[in-house]
């Protein structure tokens, strides 16, 4: 009994030291005209307002988290610009607590083969252990290597899945570039497992293409969202920067740091902003490592898939301009086929289109660079579940349904290369 009490006290104090979001509110806001749109665009450059979803075009909603001290000012702004808004979460901390309680409560059934399962979310160490375990169990198909170290000296894993041979096309997959989007590594690790453990059920997906999969390309940030002294809603990497006004801040948005039309809109020069684009293109060691790993296989790679959440979008380049790529029809048609299969599983609706036209301009993205910089023709950003009911705190019970439906889309993508 004493031990139980001690353990629960320890657990409570551990939980208490994560960054808290008491009184933070999540607003869903819809700009109706250019003036209100511009006002939101200016807010997105500030470190005060946290845009959980990227700003969209006029008439479409965006989710913005507002700290308690700014709620009344924010509401005044909404009235001043006649913007439609509603409060989606009256207290973000309550939602974080509920998600954590559910995660703790999930019972582990039987004795799983690997260090991760897909009825729960796992930290970076568990994911690394899983990768090494599945490679050891399937040395004929799986090779693990490190593409380099992070700022905090973690190895960044690359999983190659191949049945050998030469002349095959390849698909590059990554996840976890934005730390708080936990469903992303939860899908990408599941994809590795599905391709390898269930190989016999669908050998064509491994026999016909090689896969280069990086499940977590922002390991420092991802681990920080799990750490007991961390921040569940952290997005960027963890390298300090000059900040603003002489006050240093931490973290660069790696998905604004890639070097194809870098810093051409939709990113911030404010080191405290969640969309800080870094001091230069590829200023961050993690984006450099990803760049070099992709360039090493760029001659073979025909497809790049990068997994995010949330919003349910299957997006093509470009993010830096509203001009469409010359092969947009091909990119779009394939995405439509993929999403049709995805939706057929559980009815989940995805929006398809180019990043800039579905959302808003955002330069320095990995998908733009994969296509424009590395020359990989089929490049997509997939924003998975949900549409903001839970947002980044997608309940663990939705991991498997999410993964099953997205897998149907990925299969269509892969088949296009056979
Ligand atoms: Zn993201």
TrEMBL record:
<dbReference type="InterPro" id="IPR000834">
    <property type="entry name" value="Peptidase_M14"/>
</dbReference>
<keyword id="KW-0862">Zinc</keyword>
<keyword id="KW-0121">Carboxypeptidase</keyword>
<keyword id="KW-0479">Metal-binding</keyword>
<dbReference type="GO" id="GO:0006508">
    <property type="term" value="P:proteolysis"/>
</dbReference>
<feature type="active site" description="Proton donor/acceptor">
    <location>
        <position position="383"/>
    </location>
</feature>
<dbReference type="InterPro" id="IPR036990">
    <property type="entry name" value="M14A-like_propep"/>
</dbReference>
<feature type="domain" description="Peptidase M14">
    <location>
        <begin position="120"/>
        <end position="417"/>
    </location>
</feature>
<keyword id="KW-0732">Signal</keyword>
<feature type="signal peptide">
    <location>
        <begin position="1"/>
        <end position="16"/>
    </location>
</feature>
<dbReference type="InterPro" id="IPR057246">
    <property type="entry name" value="CARBOXYPEPT_ZN_1"/>
</dbReference>
<keyword id="KW-0378">Hydrolase</keyword>
<dbReference type="GO" id="GO:0004181">
    <property type="term" value="F:metallocarboxypeptidase activity"/>
</dbReference>
<dbReference type="InterPro" id="IPR003146">
    <property type="entry name" value="M14A_act_pep"/>
</dbReference>
<dbReference type="Pfam" id="PF02244">
    <property type="entry name" value="Propep_M14"/>
</dbReference>
<dbReference type="Pfam" id="PF00246">
    <property type="entry name" value="Peptidase_M14"/>
</dbReference>
<dbReference type="GO" id="GO:0005615">
    <property type="term" value="C:extracellular space"/>
</dbReference>
<dbReference type="GO" id="GO:0008270">
    <property type="term" value="F:zinc ion binding"/>
</dbReference>
<keyword id="KW-1015">Disulfide bond</keyword>
<keyword id="KW-0645">Protease</keyword>
<keyword id="KW-0482">Metalloprotease</keyword>
<protein>
    <recommendedName>
        <fullName>Zinc carboxypeptidase A 1</fullName>
    </recommendedName>
</protein>
<comment type="similarity">
    <text>Belongs to the peptidase M14 family.</text>
</comment>
